[in-house]
Amino acid sequence: MSAIELTKLTLRRSGRTVLSGVDAVIDEGEFIGVFGPNGAGKTTLLQALLGLLRPESGAISIFGQPPLHGNPLAGYMPQRRAAMAELRLTGWDVVASALDGHRWGLPILGAEGRRQVAWALETVEAVEFARRPIQHLSGGEMQRLLLAQALLGKPRLLLLDEPLISLDPRYQQAVVDLVKRVQQALHITVLFTAHELNPLLGAMDRVLYLGGGRAKLGTVEDVVNSAALSQLYGAPIEVLRVGGRIIVVAAHGEVEAHAHRHDA
Length: 264
Ligand SMILES: Nc1ncnc2c1ncn2[C@@H]1O[C@H](COP(=O)(O)OP(=O)(O)OP(=O)(O)O)[C@@H](O)[C@H]1O
Ligand SMILES: [Mg+2]
Fold this sequence. Notes:
By secondary structure, this protein is α/β, with parallel strands linked by helices.
């Protein structure tokens, strides 16, 4: 069975069409990097997959079912993360609070809840620092806790929205490698949005590029080339390969990475 099927999917927001007539099939167990400039619709697509936004037209199928808000098959790491006002909370508290449905509250968990939190923390290799107050954690360590939250309930699909934002390059690679290990250990499907392609090159099976309301899904080789991206964006795009890195450049400057404003 495929993990995700999009059929002529059109998504609108505030009267504006964000994606129009998108077709795509993602297989179970694939690691998909989702790219596209600010406003291309990456977050909007993830929200539609989660059942938070209804398609204007077309269909979404997730493991053969329509999207369902609160679907236990899908784990989500949102792009806009709640500010953690209570910095004395430990990593354990942060993960446990998601399980209970109370963000940053202090839930009292039963034995099964505690087992789930312990499993998630172990899976993201966070046991060592999970008892420390979060104010003493690095950005990369916090990211692992948020990944642990997304893994609660053992989802088969992981939707990660910009997990690399505000991490330095060394931590970016560590987060990608961790997600890859988790994906392989649990045999799950991953959609991972990002602005920079390079940290994901060793981890992705295929890429989904969004632009101009349209989408292109395929291998890095098939999608990340001048012809395919120029067609998608309707503007000349150049793709340079330098020492194993890929640089995507538009006539007005680099499309990825530097030209983008981040909100986290
Ligand atoms: N809650 C919302 N209400 C109305 N419009 C929205 C909302 N969220 C996003 N939009 C609009 O939908 C379009 C797609 O936004 P989206 O956040 O999906 O893009 P993105 O690819 O995730 O961008 P970024 O790289 O900045 O995260 C944008 O034009 C945005 O302004
Ligand atoms: Mg976004």
